[in-house]
Design a protein that fits this description.
about 325 residues, 18 helices
Length: about 325
C-alpha cells in the first residue's frame, strides 16, 4: 500500500502514469457519485483489462478486489485509485473497508495498491493519521511537491536564466502552470494570453482551485488577497474583514495546502512577530493584481489592466522571484 498526496495540478497523476508504463496496471479515477457507483464503474474498467464480462458487484469495492485477486494469482500488478478522497467524502466507512481489503484480500498477493488524492487534509486524516484505519498498513507515503527552482530551469532548457526567473516569478513552480508558458512569447504576452485573457488556461485558476478544495472559498480568497499586500496577522485579518480569533483555522488549511508559508525570527521560540506570505507565485500574482480587477478582465480589457495595474510592478515581482531562487541555490 502506497499513499501519494499533494496539491492539485502538481503532477501526481502524471507521476503514477509514468510509473505504470511497461507494468501490468489498473488505473481508476474516482468521482463524487458515491462508493456503490464507483465500485460498479471500476468493475467495468477491470473487466475490460481482463477482457472479461463485468463481474457482479454486491458488496462494493470488496467484491471488486476479490475479483481482481481471483484473476491475478501471484502476478505483480499495480492498482491505482486516483482522487481517493472523493470516495471518503461520500462514505466515511471507506477507509475501514480498504483496511479490510489490504489485510484480508490483497495481503497474500503481489499487488501494489496506490491511493492518491489532492485533498491534502482528507488524505492525511483518512490514510496517514494514527486515527485512520489504514494507519500502519502503508509501505510508503509521499507528498508530491511543486518543482524547485533548479527544476523550473530544466523545464526551459533553451531560455536564459533571466527569462526563467521572469517566468518563475509569475507562473511559479507547479508543472501544470509552467506547461502553459509559450517560450516564443515575451513575459508580457504570456501574462496577457495565459492569465489575464478570459477563457485562457490559467484565467481564475487560483479561484477554481479554492472552489475545488473548500465548500466556502470566499474567506480564503479574502485572506489571500489581503496577504498579497500585508504580512502581519492583524493587518491581514483587518484587510480580509475576518476576526483575528478566527484566522488560525483558515491559515492552518492554507498551510496544509502549501499555498502560504509563515516566517518567524530564528532567535525566538514563542513570538507574535510571525509573518505570512503566499508561497505559490501564480496565486500571489492573481490575488495581487488580477482578482481586484476582475470587472475589467471580464470585459476583455487585459491590455488596460496590464498597463495600469501590473507593468510598473514587474521589476519588484522579478526581484522577489530572484531572491527566492537565490535562497534555494545558495542553500
Amino acid at each position: 500500500l502506497l499513499i501519494i498526496y499533494g496539491r492539485r495540478r502538481v503532477g501526481k497523476t502524471e507521476l503514477i502514469k509514468k510509473f505504470q508504463e511497461n507494468k501490468e496496471h489498473i488505473y481508476y479515477l474516482c468521482d463524487k457519485t458515491g462508493s456503490e457507483k464507483n465500485a460498479w464503474k471500476m468493475a467495468k474498467v477491470i473487466s475490460s483489462f481482463f477482457k472479461d464480462v463485468t463481474p457482479a458487484i454486491e458488496h462494493g469495492f470488496e467484491d471488486v478486489f476479490v475479483y481482481i485477486k481471483s484473476r491475478i494469482g501471484k502476478k505483480k500488478i499495480v492498482i491505482a485509485l486516483d482522487e481517493f478522497p472523493y470516495l471518503v467524502e461520500k462514505d466515511p466507512a471507506i477507509p475501514s473497508l480498504f483496511q479490510k481489503i489490504v489485510d484480508e484480500v490483497l495481503s497474500d498477493t503481489e499487488a501494489m495498491l496506490i491511493l492518491c488524492g489532492s485533498s491534502m487534509g482528507m488524505m492525511y486524516e483518512h490514510t496517514i493519521s494514527s486515527k485512520s484505519p489504514l494507519y500502519g498498513r502503508k509501505r510508503g507515503f509521499w507528498e508530491v511537491r511543486p518543482f524547485l527552482f533548479k527544476d523550473v530551469c530544466k523545464f526551459f532548457p533553451s531560455l536564459s536564466l533571466e527569462r526563467v526567473i521572469e517566468i518563475f516569478s509569475v507562473f511559479g513552480n507547479v508543472p501544470a502552470y509552467l506547461k502553459e508558458v509559450n517560450t516564443t512569447f515575451s513575459i508580457k504576452e504570456n501574462i496577457k494570453e495565459k492569465i489575464l485573457k478570459k477563457g485562457s488556461p490559467l484565467y481564475r485558476e487560483p479561484e477554481i482551485l479554492l472552489l475545488e478544495e473548500f465548500r466556502e472559498p470566499s474567506p480564503y480568497q479574502n485572506i489571500l488577497e489581503a496577504m498579497s499586500e500585508e504580512a502581519k496577522l492583524s493587518k491581514i485579518a483587518n484587510k480580509a474583514k475576518i476576526e483575528a480569533k478566527d484566522m488560525p483555522k483558515y491559515l492552518k488549511k492554507l498551510l496544509q495546502l502549501s499555498l502560504i508559508r509563515k516566517e518567524q525570527p530564528i532567535t525566538e521560540k514563542k513570538t507574535k512577530k510571525t509573518l505570512y506570505f503566499i508561497e505559490d507565485n501564480l496565486f500571489y500574482f492573481w490575488f495581487r493584481f488580477c482578482s481586484k480587477n476582475l470587472s475589467f478582465l471580464e470585459e476583455g480589457k487585459e491590455e488596460f489592466v496590464f498597463e495600469n495595474y501590473i507593468e510598473k510592478h514587474l521589476p519588484n515581482l522579478f526581484a522577489k522571484g530572484f531572491e527566492s531562487a537565490c535562497k534555494e541555490l545558495l542553500s
